[in-house]
């Protein structure tokens, strides 16, 4: 490989830094586009008694107002992958269930008129008791959000693997803890945007949106719109201002604006503002976890019992409750634990609905799991590194089969751990820490091991159903992705991908792969990243999620390029009077390996395919246009024992973080952050570094700053960046990044996913470091974010108790 694995500069950056990017707000695909504004509920839970639209409708420039009853008449509730009878429409119907839920849509000649008209709509509400906290939703005494369900528990499953009860009976210690993870957003630079047009003559919807997939939601949208799948065309621009998962949550607005366009007979454009995004777009789930560990005196973990409950907000909507099950296959993380009991619960609460967000389920899972490793070492008075080593999977055990069905493809976790320890000089830090405590300075060192799943198996979501329920429905498996490579009659190479990149550099890496396969310069290749569901090579599993480009998307590109290569070699074989095995493709030509003077240019071979099809060898079709769809056999459906390999590749992250805690203010200062990654073969080291830093910034936010907060009445408290704090460049610490590479034996390039690991590791490794710093106060962190007031309160409560 000449280009793959090299730090090739990103080709996307030229247009982005020069102002030539194409975002949703840059598009004006149709004439007569009107603008929409949304009236939102001020109540967390209330019945809608009446809506008075007359004054708004009479506003000059307004062409119509749409409410829930209008939308309900033309749509079905969105389908969801659980049996709970929850009806979710893209606008409130009869009840509102979270602050910010859409109640009415005004469409006018411009956004200013539409916004003014919103103030003229009067809504009569009957307030109801809200359910805000997860533990309240678990109670049978709480108000029920969806009467047809009769409960706020919308999914509940219990799994048991190995011999859990015996492991607990033979344990020397049973250690039990409870942990709380906050509801957080992704805060992309660009918020949601939709342009929708209904064509009456075709009975078809065309929707332009910065929707990034996954395309399982295409079927969800067509079901809601009650149209055949080829009557919903989704077009995504090549630049969508970041996503980190959250822009899959735009799909209800895509349906809503499509229906509004149908009702009012004009194309409709809606652009979300920042307050709307924080209040009502989507978020990660908040979670409460109860965990019990059965442990031997030497620190060996014999078994785990984990009960976790997620709040999915006012409605459960696709792809939920997948957050509960995303880490099911790697539920024991990097550790050799074969006895596991898991109880997974999803509840509805009067908060905004949830969905995909970077690390999906990983931060919520690893916070309690990796906190327990430190807690176990403290309870047993053992060094935390020795406890980690004792339980860590060894190199010789790969491919490692987890208790719940995961198949870790490759790794050397101990090598990564030792590389981290060598980087930070563990022993000298412990001495420095003791000296600092004596001087009133509180230094701490935390560790975290993260198995990073990538290339998700579509079938993992069905683990939400019992084996009996799964048997009655269509089996789901696989991780397929498509790509097309074509060469025009003049030799121009074009690649069309369906991974819907959101800033990760897919275009650059795609050009590197195709350049290596075809022996050409990457600069000669044009990559088309805009997605069109009527013309792009997509599948139901396509899209940008689960760090799937490196293991799956790149493999589809590689296979499509290989098809083109083989076709060119077959043509060259007849021209050079040799066999394919003797030919080499490099530097823009094909030549005989043992006789390089015997050659022909790729451009001429392409010319033969287009201009002289009669001269092609028998069985070779004219033209150069090849598509490939890639999947892996490891992505099978769950079996009758609820075993499932939820991803096809598994990377590894080992973090070591040094902090200082100011006990007078509660402020946490990160002194140094060391992160070791194993993502198999690195396709482009420059892009890898950027992805790691992005994931780390997300993780720091959840650790120290970010929380979508609500009061006891369900009122939203963090509706702007004045209240919802995000880390900026000045908050990013000194970061040392190092790599080991254990290539995946499953993917053609040996690559695994990367970019979400530190989102999963940063919250818990910082919590571990802060706990270590506050060891003299016997404080243990069990809740995030670690805001100064929360830490200060813990410290002062301890001081008061000591007095």
From TrEMBL:
Cell membrane as UniProt keyword: no
Pfam families: Ald_Xan_dh_C, MoCoBD_1, MoCoBD_2
Aldehyde oxidase/xanthine dehydrogenase a/b hammerhead domain residues: 18-129
Bilayer-spanning residue ranges: none
InterPro entries assigned: Ald_Oxase/Xan_DH_a/b (IPR000674), Ald_Oxase/Xan_DH_a/b_sf (IPR036856), Ald_Oxase/xanthine_DH-like (IPR016208), AldOxase/xan_DH_MoCoBD1 (IPR008274), AldOxase/xan_DH_MoCoBD2 (IPR046867), AldOxase/xan_DH_Mopterin-bd_sf (IPR037165)
Alphabetized UniProt keyword annotations: Molybdenum, Oxidoreductase
A molecular function GO annotation: oxidoreductase activity
Entry superkingdom: Bacteria
Signal peptide stretch: none
Protein name: Xanthine dehydrogenase family protein molybdopterin-binding subunit
Species annotation: Cytobacillus firmus
């Amino acid at each position: 490989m000449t280009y793959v694995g090299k730090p090739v500069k990103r080709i996307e950056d030229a247009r982005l830094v020069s102002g030539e990017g194409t975002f949703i707000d840059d598009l004006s695909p149709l004439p007569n586009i009107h603008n929409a504004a949304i009236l939102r509920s001020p109540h967390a839970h209330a019945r809608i008694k009446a809506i008075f639209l007359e004054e708004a409708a009479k506003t000059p420039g307004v062409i119509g107002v749409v409410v829930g009853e209008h939308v309900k008449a033309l749509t079905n509730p969105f389908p969801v992958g659980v049996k709970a009878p929850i009806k979710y429409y893209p606008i409130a119907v009869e009840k509102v269930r979270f602050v910010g839920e859409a109640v009415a849509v005004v469409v006018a000649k411009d956004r200013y008129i539409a916004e003014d008209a919103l103030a003229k709509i009067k809504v009569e509400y009957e307030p109801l008791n809200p359910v805000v906290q997860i533990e309240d939703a678990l109670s049978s005494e709480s108000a029920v959000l969806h009467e047809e369900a009769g409960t706020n528990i919308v999914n509940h499953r219990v799994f048991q693997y190995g011999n859990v009860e015996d492991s607990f009976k033979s344990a020397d210690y049973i250690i039990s803890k409870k942990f709380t993870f906050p509801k957080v957003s992704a805060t992309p630079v660009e918020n949601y945007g939709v342009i929708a047009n209904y064509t009456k003559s075709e009975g078809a919807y065309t929707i332009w949106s910065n929707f990034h997939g996954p395309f399982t939601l295409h079927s969800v949208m067509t079901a809601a719109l009650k149209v055949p799948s080829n009557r919903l065309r989704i077009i995504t621009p090549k630049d969508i201002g970041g996503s980190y998962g959250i822009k899959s949550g735009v799909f209800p607005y895509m349906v809503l604006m499509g229906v509004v366009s149908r009702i009012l007979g004009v194309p409709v454009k809606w652009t979300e503002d920042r307050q709307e995004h924080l209040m009502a777009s989507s978020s990660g789930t908040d979670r409460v976890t109860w965990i019990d560990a059965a442990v031997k005196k030497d620190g060996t973990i014999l078994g785990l019992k984990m009960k976790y409950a997620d709040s999915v907000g006012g409605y459960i909507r696709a792809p939920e409750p997948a957050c509960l099950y995303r880490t099911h296959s790697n539920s024991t993380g990097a550790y050799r634990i074969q006895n596991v009991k898991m109880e997974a619960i999803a509840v509805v609460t009067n908060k905004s609905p949830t969905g995909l967000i970077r690390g999906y389920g990983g931060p919520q899972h690893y916070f309690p799991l990796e906190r327990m490793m430190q807690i176990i070492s403290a309870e047993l008075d053992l060094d935390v590194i020795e406890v980690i080593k004792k339980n860590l999977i060894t190199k010789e055990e790969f491919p490692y089969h987890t208790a719940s069905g995961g198949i870790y493809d490759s790794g050397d976790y101990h090598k990564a751990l030792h590389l981290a320890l060598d980087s930070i000089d563990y022993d000298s830090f412990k001495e420095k820490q003791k000296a600092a405590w004596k001087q009133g300075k509180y230094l701490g060192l935390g560790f975290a091991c993260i198995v990073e799943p990538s290339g998700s198996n579509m079938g993992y979501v069905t683990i939400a159903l019992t084996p009996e329920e799964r048997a009655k429905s269509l089996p789901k498996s696989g991780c397929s992705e498509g790509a097309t490579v074509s060469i025009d009659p003049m030799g121009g190479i074009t690649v069309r991908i369906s991974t819907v990149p959101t800033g990760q550099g897919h275009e650059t890496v795609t050009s590197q792969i195709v350049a290596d396969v075809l022996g050409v310069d990457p600069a000669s290749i044009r990559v088309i990243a805009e997605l069109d569901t009527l013309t792009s090579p997509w599948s139901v599993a396509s899209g940008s999620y689960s760090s799937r480009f490196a293991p799956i998307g790149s493999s589809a590109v590689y296979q499509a390029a290989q098809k083109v290569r083989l076709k060119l070699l077959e043509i060259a074989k007849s021209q050079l009077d040799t066999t394919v095995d003797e030919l080499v493709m490099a530097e823009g030509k094909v030549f005989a390996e043992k006789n390089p003077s015997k050659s022909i240019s790729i451009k001429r071979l392409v010319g033969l395919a287009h201009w002289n099809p009669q001269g092609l060898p028998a069985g070779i079709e004219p033209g150069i246009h090849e598509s490939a769809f890639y999947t892996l056999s490891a992505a099978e459906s769950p079996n009758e024992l609820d075993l499932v390999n939820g991803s096809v590749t598994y990377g590894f992250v080992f973090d070591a973080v040094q902090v200082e805690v100011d006990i007078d203010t509660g402020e946490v200062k990160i002194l140094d952050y060391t992160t070791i990654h194993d993502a198999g073969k690195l396709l482009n080291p420059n892009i890898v570094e950027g992805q790691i830093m992005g994931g780390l910034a997300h993780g720091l936010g959840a650790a120290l700053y970010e929380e979508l907060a609500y009061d006891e009445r369900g009122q939203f408290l963090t509706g702007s960046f004045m209240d919802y704090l995000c880390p900026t460049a000045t908050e990013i610490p000194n970061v040392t990044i190092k790599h080991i590479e254990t290539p995946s034996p499953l993917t053609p390039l040996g690559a695994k996913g990367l970019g979400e690991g530190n989102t999963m590791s940063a919250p818990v490794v910082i919590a571990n470091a802060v706990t270590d710093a506050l060891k003299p106060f016997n404080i243990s962190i069990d809740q995030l974010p670690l805001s100064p007031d929360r830490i200060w309160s813990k410290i002062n409560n301890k001081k008061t108790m000591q007095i």
